[in-house]
Design brief:
9 strands; eight-stranded antiparallel beta barrel; about 180 residues; elongated; 1 helix; mainly beta
Length: about 180
């Protein structure tokens, strides 16, 4: 019975120690209890990017990203502590082709890292498992007069050339 009580006491004391740790992404000197301010930006649609092509029977396609929605949690110090992106991928055929384009799909990304380099913070996102197409996402975040803007670069990486594509878009962010 005594060993059971000691085990419960050890578990309870460990929980308190873990709970008092600062968040892993918080910058040095940031308060662990500080609530990040949410910055949000949306872009309705990118210009189409052409990919594919080559000799028959290969087809030429376009990729257009729509409803791009970016949210970042930013501390007063400028440290980025969380973020997510969602977009709608819309593929279309250029001309005629016997192979249909991929069906439109929503892709979600979660912030994995934020690395400060001078006036720009490099953000790396991870695509949610199972989302299609396989895409990497990085962003360059800069401060612009009390607001932020992010240049997002999406790159399809589940297929090689000529079926991969890269789409870049600037998303202005405003505090919420």
């Amino acid at each position: 019975m005594r060993s059971r009580i000691l085990a419960v006491a050890a578990v309870c004391s460990a929980c308190g120690a873990v709970n008092n740790m600062p968040p892993g992404d918080a910058a040095a000197g940031d308060s662990p209890t500080e609530t990040p301010r949410t910055y949000h930006g949306m872009v309705a649609e990118t210009s189409p990017v052409t990919f594919g092509g080559g000799p028959a029977p290969n087809c030429t396609y376009t990729m257009t990203l729509r409803q791009i929605d970016l949210q970042l949690g930013i501390l007063a110090s400028g440290a980025i502590v969380n973020g997510q992106v969602q977009d709608l991928n819309v593929e279309a055929i250029v001309g005629t082709c016997m192979f249909l384009p991929a069906a439109p799909s929503i892709t979600n990304y979660t912030l994995m890292s934020a690395v400060v380099g001078g006036a720009t913070t490099k953000l790396t996102f991870r695509e949610r498992a199972g989302d299609k197409p396989g895409t990497s996402l990085v962003a360059d975040l800069t401060a612009v007069g009390g607001k932020y803007q992010a240049q997002l670069t999406f790159h399809r990486n589940d297929l090689g050339p000529p079926l991969d594509w890269t789409v870049a878009v600037i998303v202005p962010l405003a505090p919420q």
